[in-house]
Design goal:
It is a single chain. The protein is an alpha/beta fold and 156 residues long. The protein has one domain: YbaK/aminoacyl-tRNA synthetase-associated domain (YbaK protein, Alpha-Beta Complex). 28% of the residues lie in helices and 26% in strands. A hairpin with a 6-residue loop joins strand 7 (123-125) and strand 8 (132-136). The longest helix is centred in the first third of the chain and has 12 residues, at 3-14.
Length: 156
């Protein structure tokens, strides 16, 4: 099943009111997605996969205009972490870098939603490809990801 279809099926089951937006242009970075949507970079929900020293994976979702504090993530999960590489991201999530969706993951991983996302009534997450977006509220993200609220960002 193509990535976007996996996301669409997931949304149909969890919250059919949420619709995927498809673009002709590249939306693989927060900046490009914000340009395509005509929004602030902060309204883009970036989904980042981290790998712990114990070989566990976690996903952190934040606004596109903040940096993630590695020490705060370490404190959150109890282990040092590093960003997963492109191969790991594709293997674990089933999505390529630039199109990582925070739900409909190939392999279930804990999802942490940074409170920076609360600044906006709606944020836009990727929908599995480098030219898609899903408009979603913070509360909807919590519900459909089964995620946990956290504060691991710097800069908002």
């Amino acid at each position: 099943m193509k990535e976007i279809e996996r996301v669409r099926s997931f949304l149909q089951a969890k919250n059919p009111a949420i619709r995927i937006i498809e673009f002709e242009q590249d939306t693989s970075t927060s900046f490009l997605a914000a340009q395509a949507l005509g929004t602030e970079v902060g309204q883009i929900a970036k989904s980042m996969l981290f790998k712990s020293k114990k070989d566990d994976y976690i996903m952190v979702v934040s606004t596109g205009d903040v940096k993630i504090d590695a020490k705060a993530v370490k404190d959150l999960v109890g282990s040092r972490v590093r960003m997963a590489n492109e191969v790991e991201v594709l293997d674990v999530t089933g999505f390529p870098v630039g199109g990582v969706c925070p739900f409909a993951l190939k392999t279930p991983v804990p999802v942490y939603l940074d409170e920076s996302l609360k600044r906006y009534p709606v944020v836009y997450a990727a929908a599995g490809t480098a030219n898609t977006a899903v408009p979603v509220t913070y509360q909807e993200l919590l519900e459909i990801t089964g995620g946990q609220a956290c504060r691991v960002s710097i800069g908002d």
